[in-house]
Write a structure and sequence with these properties.
- The chain is an alpha+beta fold.
- It has one domain: Alpha-Beta Plaits, CATH 3.30.70.
- A three-stranded antiparallel beta sheet has the order 1-2-3, with helices on one face.
- A hairpin with a 3-residue loop joins strand 1 and strand 2.
- The chain starts with 5 loop residues before the first strand and ends in a 9-residue tail after the last strand.
- The mean pLDDT is 92.
Length: 80
């Protein structure tokens, strides 16, 4: 059994959540924003490489739901 990992990446304005167990490795994130989502470097997510709007738009295209996001000013404790 492969262990599922949950990682959070933030630029101060938005936090992107990646859940490895859901990822189907379609590459849509990498092809859409390669400076932000680059599986060839560690860490593979660099939210300083694009605007928050660009990041949110790309995360919404994730077909598996492995990538999600929330704005840091949200007061919802479901993100912990």
């Amino acid at each position: 059994m492969v262990r599922s990992v949950k990682r959070k990446y933030s630029n101060g304005e938005v936090t992107v959540v990646w859940q490895s167990g859901l990822c189907k490795h379609s590459g849509i994130c990498f092809r859409g924003l390669p400076d932000v989502f680059n599986p060839f470097i560690v860490p593979w997510v660099n939210l300083d490489a694009a605007t928050t709007d660009e990041i949110v738009s790309q995360v919404k295209k994730c077909p598996s739901g492995a990538l999600s996001f929330y704005y840091n000013n949200e007061t919802n404790s479901d993100h912990e």
